[in-house]
Give the backbone structure.
Amino acid sequence: MTRRSSLSTLLLPFAGIATVLAVWTVLSRHVAPDLPSPWRTWKESEPYVLRPFFKDGEMNQGIGRFALLSLWRVTKGFSLAIAIGTPLGFLLGLSPTFRRAFEPVIQVMRPISPLAWLPLGLIIFQRSEPAALFTIALCAMWPTVVNTAVGVRSINVEYLNVGRVLRLSPMTMLRKIVIPATLPYVFTGYRLSLGLAWLVIVASEMLTGAPGIGGFLWQEYNSLVYSHILLSIVTIGLIGFALDRLMGMVETRVRGL
Amino acid sequence: MAAFLELRGVRKAFAGSHGATPVLAGVDLAVAEGELVAIIGASGSGKTTLVSLIAGLLPPDGGEIALDGVPVRAPSLERGVVFQNHSLLPWLTVLENVQLAADAARSDWSAAARHARAEHWVRLVGLTDAAAKRPAQLSGGMRQRVAVARGLAVEPRVLLLDEPFSALDALTRATLQNELARIWASDRRTMLLITNDVDEACLLADRIHILVPAPAGGHTLADGIAVALPRPRVSSELNRQVEYQRVRREILARLAEAHMRAAG
Ligand SMILES: Nc1ncnc2c1ncn2[C@@H]1O[C@H](COP(=O)(O)OP(=O)(O)O)[C@@H](O)[C@H]1O
Ligand SMILES: [Mg+2]
């Protein structure tokens, strides 16, 4: 029984990948002639994948180099997002007044697309790099804000009562009770925020033309090298998956505490 | 003469689906300094509510609660609480949980002195070896010990214990009851012990009150029954003592009567 299940955990994902490749092949053969086949995609991407860290120019680099540039940008944007989002979430969760004042604003800002924020960032900062960070942070912080606030509001009353009968100062209450009790929610927020940040990076690089995986994708679209679009897409997916797994592991550790 | 801990006409109702449901309907209680008073009540009779009111976690709808003549308005370190479900903070170790209370009680002491103080309380409940463990790694009995240690570490003038041993198996419960008796005998701190166990009340208390249904809904405290048993009391020998049998009979009779009245 265990053999069968371990076999299927190995085989079924391969079956899934095979299906996608098959559909892709059919599409490129019969439906969209401009779409390169999987094989052609691989052949034309080979130098970028096998020499992931070469650099012949700002926009002609190995896929690993582009990925690192994007990851670095995401790291900065994500850090900004949680640096703003975490305290904001705690404020929302702790203060009913603050919540009543800002909840509506947040609900309205949350569904705004990165494509809408980016021009605003460019107007404010005049340069593409800070505009991209602004966009990533603004789009990615909401899960952190919302999860942190929910976490604060769902703290077990028993724990709060312990703090009250011990007459803990607000700072001690925050440090010893509120923050540790909220931490699992905060990290769930971080994981979702990181996922969003990675989603936004592509859009922001495409619009600003910044070097990175999204910028590369857009440039290759304009140069009609469609196979490299597919290379970028696969890379974006794989990295996003890896990031989610990584944060998932951190989250599990925090929850297990 | 005003008692040390005094409740007069304390009322509390909770908003329910059909208006306010009375829980406590005029509770009177007087506890002298150094006394250990037990309160027995069926589940849902308002025992935890009573503790929350005395602790200052809930405001009463009416009546007065005062400790040493000072009205209770909010929580204070003068009134320590051992909560029903131990309420240990799961992210802190045994020592850290107790330390939190020791720090609160002795905020004017040096960090080293406060640390030694917390270790003292952990030792008192016999958990020195488990001091670095987290609550999830402890047995139910050990968690209750930590909860008691944390309550003691506040060094309150009155310690409120809300069914501290109810969730334990009989053997562990007996051990902890004896330990509580020993701790109380050593410094005679005023304690209010909430319990649903008649034998526990007889073993530990100077006086026992029963929460009985009030005519207009909710519960109220009946007159106390003094327990004139010499200390130290040994649980295995209590059964043979005439006074024990008298107290036990009286409590059971009153509980049965309260039950009858509530039913009919
Ligand atoms: N915060 C609350 N809101 C509404 N009803 C409550 C609340 N706390 C307790 N009650 C109700 O009051 C009654 C007494 O509860 P409690 O004091 O916890 O009883 P006990 O500790 O004796 O089991 C119960 O019927 C309970 O449902
Ligand atoms: Mg209770």
